Amino acid sequence: MQNISAIKASITKLCSHYPEEYWRKLDKINGYPSEFVEEMNKEGFLSCLIPEEFGGSGLGLIEATAILEEVSFNGCNAGACHAQMYVMASILKYGTYQQKKQYLPRISSGELRLQSFGITEPDSGTDTTNLKTTAKKLGNDYILNGKKVWISRVEHSDLMVLLARTKAKDDCSKKTDGLSAFIIDLKKAVGNGLTIKPIDTMINHHSCELFLDDLVVSSENLLGDENDGFKVVLDAMNAERILIASECIGDARYFIKKATDYASNRIVFDRPIGANQGVSFPLARAYANMVAAKLLVEKAATLFDANEHCGAEANMCKLLASEVSWFAGDTAMQTFGGFAFSKEYHIERKFRETRLYQIAPVSTNLILSYIAERELGLPRSF
Ligand SMILES: Cc1cc2nc3c(=O)[nH]c(=O)nc-3n(C[C@H](O)[C@H](O)[C@H](O)COP(=O)(O)OP(=O)(O)OC[C@H]3O[C@@H](n4cnc5c(N)ncnc54)[C@H](O)[C@@H]3O)c2cc1C
Predict the structure, then answer these.
(1) Residues in a beta bridge with 223
(2) Measured from the CA of 207, which atom of ligand 1 is nearest?
(3) What residues does each domain of the chain span?
(4) pLDDT digits (tens, 9 = 90+) for 155-192
(5) What gap in Å lies between CA 247 and CA 316, rounded to an integer?
(6) pLDDT classification of 2: cutoffs 50, 70, 90
(7) Which CATH architecture has domain 2-109?
(8) Spelled out in words, what is the top-level CATH class assigned to the domain 231-375?
(9) Pocket of ligand 1 (CB under 6 A)
(10) φ and ψ of 109, to 5 deg
(11) Strand 207-218 to 194-198 pairing
């Protein structure tokens, strides 16, 4: 816990160099917070999960959640850099020693960014195992063809972990078979079989469409076993859900603090608006829900770090945390009244940003169907 407090204090100091006005300006021009990401890297936060032998600090997901929660609480947008932590989970668990030696020290030093996770496709969406991008073995290489959508930060990354089909679906005995994960060297790939097209979005998240047209990837970049890639990305997906839940907790704390301060100082009808229970009760409810969701985030991260099954907890903490951050955001909007709509108060930017997390990385309905089926034993709906 001492460690966590020290981490939080360092993050607060770092974030003070990037006030909300910095994020507002970037939001306006769809700019990438390069200085922020570089400083996060320089201070070792983005390589916190990398073992010390490869230049990282060898911490666990529990520390990583503390980092992202505090970044979000301080008004910054952790979405600009969070992927390096969760995509890392695949390389740490399934990368060969050679792959780790090749990439991890350079990621730790900040020379390489691992900021992209290429899963979603336009024609399969949430139905990941139905993805259409193919990787065909040719000699010592794989030839990749297909389309991806919503792949974030790809223009600001050097590496991406991508999932593609290596065995026809009809030849597989299980839905999750026949997929393989690859480490893509983006700097080599762009213009040589990979085309990137940015998507104009409601938040500043740098998401893109990808077009793969005979992209050549060496078999040395296969991550884990051929046809077993779903398992490889699953660890990253669980880490992603837990880390994003921690960002939602940070967002919820941000909204509650901002709204509480405002409600204490804004005088209407000759008294602070926070003296009205219609204003204070939703804030109190948001606080209670946030504290409960945070406990589940901590439980999920602890299970992940102990290498135990954490699928249910990862999904449930993402569900609850994304709902509480949205509720806290909505409550902050109501508390600020008309001023919530002024960009100068920053609430509306965070409100837009936190809405994403009920849709990505996995939508609320899909989590509910996971819980219904896996935890409650109800029949599969799809
Ligand atoms: C800003 C942004 C950034 C993203 N970044 C990345 C990224 O970096 N990498 C990446 O791989 N992906 C990324 N995504 C994709 C994201 O993970 C998907 O958008 C999300 O998983 C939902 O998939 P979809 O958009 O295709 O929705 P669809 O699958 O088309 O679903 C649409 C709606 O229908 C519901 N639905 C679908 N099927 C069912 C069912 N059987 N039962 C009940 N409800 C159902 C869903 O819950 C959802 O609400 C990003 C998305 C956004 C918006």
Answers:
(1) 181
(2) 3
(3) 2-109, 114-227, 231-375
(4) 999 999 999 999 999 999 999 999 999 999 999 999 99
(5) 15
(6) low
(7) Orthogonal Bundle (1.10)
(8) mainly alpha
(9) 117-120, 125-126, 150-152, 201, 205, 207, 356, 359-363, 365-366, 369, 381-382
(10) -75, -10
(11) antiparallel
